[in-house]
Amino acid sequence: MSDPYSDLAGQNQSTQALIADAMEARCMEPAQIAIRRAYLSGLSVPADAFAVEFGSGTGHVTSDLIAMAGATRALGIEPSPVMVARAQAHFADDPRLSFKTGDAKRTELQDATVDLVLMHTLLCHVPEPQEVVAEAFRILKPWGQLAICDGDYDTATAQIADYDPLDQIIRFMINQNVTNLWIMRQITEILTGAGFTLGPRQGHGYVAEGEATYFMTVISRGADRMMETGLLFPETAQALKDEAQRRVEADKFFGFMSYVSQIAIKPGTA
Ligand SMILES: C[S@@+](CC[C@H](N)C(=O)[O-])C[C@H]1O[C@@H](n2cnc3c(N)ncnc32)[C@H](O)[C@@H]1O
User: Fold this and answer.
1) Residue 248 Cα, ligand 1 centroid: separation in angstroms?
2) pLDDT digits 0-9 by tens, 68-86
3) Is 220 contained in some domain?
4) CATH number of residue 139's parent domain
5) How many domains does the structure of the chain reveal?
6) CA distance 171 to 178
7) Is the pLDDT of residue 163 over 90?
8) Which end of the chain is flanked by fewer CB atoms within 10 Å, N or C?
9) From 15, 68, 125, 180, mutation site for ligand 1 pocket: most ligand atoms within 8 A of C-beta
């Protein structure tokens, strides 16, 4: 199966709703919020800054552009109407935030009108990331900033010992749900090739905590998918889900992945 996030609007409604639930669970985890704060709160934006998130999903990360990065207004652009409707409903009371359906490769925004562009866990799902980076360059003002953060997916694991069967589900899900596992190891060349100057790069370790809500959604969807593809019998899929849940209840669960963030600046004249 190809990465469903690369064409979310083309998935059926129930798949989009399931993915939206998982996305929201991930956004709200304190460890994930800490990652976003670590690279967004250090940005310095001009007064009355306009920020845009490409691939805004359920909109929570778009709202960070105001709460963490200090923008005055923020727009989220997202191809899936299901996600856009969720974001609009959730943030209906905040006039500083807006959301629209669209493609990050063709935003229809004017040249040099945006102060800050954000791509949070977007580029790993896009087959031609150079086109998205070029679009950010086009719409940014001189000295405008691009903030990119994505998983370093080869580091994703739930393994607690040799030959741990739960880890196979994580590997399976990463391979089914990510188009480019290596995007953050390749991003600097893409950015300089588009004309950007490189700013700070940071690594962020994500360790699942408490109920491990996001990892549980990954294991549950992964076990179901292994069953749908005929790899597992239903009883085995259920047993793996139960194993993960029992580990959480017994304080034995471990889930980890590294994220990397990179800031880039569109050069201006002195
Ligand atoms: C993993 S989700 C991340 C959503 C949000 N940034 C977050 O962190 O919660 C990736 C999102 O990128 C969107 N996406 C995929 N291809 C896109 C494209 N070409 N233009 C804009 N968004 C895209 C998907 O529909 C999905 O909502």
Assistant:
1) 29
2) 999 999 999 999 999 999 9
3) no
4) 3.40.50.150
5) 1
6) 11
7) yes
8) C
9) 125
